[in-house]
């Protein structure tokens, strides 16, 4: 599934209703992941960012003690989950038993000065296990 941020060009932060409408069937997965991060991992701080919205759109950052843990970008019937992993976290993630698509993304993670970028598109419930696992690795490292 190809991902494009659904709110490219939108001046104001998207509302909950707009997000739910745009995500469609994936809205329940979005809510489930955000709730899981808060309840199971203690990641309760949320921050919407629209950096260069004409080009990139809007994303929701889930943070813990001002540390960005994960970025969620709403798309049409799906959403992008992005992590910036340290070298240590990336090495730990490479050792995990993940679905093929997630393992491939981990193996191909692009290195940036702030860490290694990992992006996964979520469109069905089976994708949640991989992103929960990677989030736990991020938090542990």
Radius of gyration based on Cα positions: 14 Å
β-sheet strand percentage:
25-35%
How many helices? 5
- Roughly what is the average pLDDT, rounded to an integer? 96
Report the sheet with the most strands, covering strand number, pairing sense and barrel closure: 6 strands, antiparallel
Number of domains: 1
Low-confidence runs: none
Characterise this structure.
The protein is 37% helix and 28% strand. With 141 residues, it is of the alpha+beta class. It has five helices and six strands, in the order ααββββααββα. A six-stranded antiparallel β-sheet has the order 1-2-3-4-6-5. The protein has one domain (16-140): Aspartate Aminotransferase, domain 1, CATH 3.90.1150. The mean pLDDT is 96.
Which secondary structure elements does this structure contain, and how are they paired or packed?
Elements: H1 16-23, H2 27-41, E1 45-49, E2 59-64, E3 67-75, E4 78-85, H3 87-94, H4 100-107, E5 110-112, E6 115-122, H5 128-140
Helix pairs in contact: 2-5, 3-5
């Amino acid at each position: 599934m190809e991902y494009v941020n659904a709110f490219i060009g939108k001046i104001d932060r998207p509302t909950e209703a707009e997000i739910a409408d745009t995500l469609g069937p994936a809205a329940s997965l979005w809510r489930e992941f955000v709730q899981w991060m808060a309840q199971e991992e203690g990641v309760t701080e949320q921050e919407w960012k629209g950096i260069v919205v004409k080009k990139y759109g809007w994303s929701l950052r889930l943070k813990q003690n001002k540390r960005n843990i994960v970025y969620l970008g709403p798309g049409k019937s799906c959403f992008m989950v992005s992590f910036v992993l340290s070298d240590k976290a990336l090495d730990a993630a490479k050792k995990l038993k993940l679905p093929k698509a997630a393992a491939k993304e981990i193996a191909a993670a692009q290195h940036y000065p702030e860490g290694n970028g990992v992006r996964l598109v979520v469109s069905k419930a089976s994708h949640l296990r991989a992103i929960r696992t990677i989030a736990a690795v991020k938090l542990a490292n």
